[in-house]
Amino acid sequence: MTDPSRTKRLAGLDIGTLTCRLLIADLLPGGQLREVRSDRRILRLGEGVDQTKQLSVTAMDRVLQCLKEWRKLIDIAQVDAVAVVATSAVRDAENRDEFLDRVKREAGFEVELISGEEEVGRTMLGIRSGLPTGVTNVLALDIGGGSTEFLLDCPGQPSIVRSINIGVVRLCERLLHHDPPTDGEVRQAREWVARETNAAVAGMDNYQTATLVGTAGTVTSLAAMAQKLPTYEPARIHNYLLQLTTIQDLERALLSRKKTDRAGLPGLESGREEVIAAGVIIIRTVMETLGMGSCLVSGLGLREGVVLHLASQGYV
Questions:
Q1: What architecture is domain 131-298?
Q2: Is 66 in a helix, a strand, or coil?
């Protein structure tokens, strides 16, 4: 029989379009998380999905191999409960059931396929758990591989959620065909992002008074690059204030290089050399479109939110 006074250990997995993430954490009194083990891998599950509407066998195999490794880690950690979510690439794929069946059969995970709105809601749980004192009204920005989510979250008011089908993988595959992208491709990308951003915030009253908080790999990578970090340091990334002028400088540096020449730039995670071009275009255009001069970086997001949501289901 489980000791009710024992600290509960939970695991959350985020199967994303570009990146898969794992968090094993102990749930502390008051609902805080203490990390036991974490991992993230750029696996590009959504490669080609925008054109084919199919998850490729090769991409599924990559993710399955990772999930089987993580299954062993979770079993060794003796967790009390596990939650696994899949997002944009799996939502868009016509063969999603084949993939979800393989995950269950080969890795032993039941996967919840969440909507864009559910994704951003859980992302906000993660973000809210680590905001600095004094930040109350939040406009969250989550740039993923297949989609980008916006959430206006102000205490005492209903949250407003918007999801647009522009992510770093989708933008690369649809528009950024040259290396580096041509001026025409960048212009088309900006026009697309600006148009969708304006549509996303239509009806969002007072978003201009909220703090823009960015999460996920594009934003954390740019924060690491802004500080020229030789290795990823979560404590220096989380709650870093990324200025628009810095993003504009980084964009110029990134778009003037081929992806092979981006490798090794301080702070740029290996495997992100191609998609960081799309990512920096997205965040610069979003911030300019919204009139935001800075973005607070959150090192916490969907992965932590998945665990906190699991805790709210009866593990507190």
A1: 2-Layer Sandwich (3.30)
A2: helix
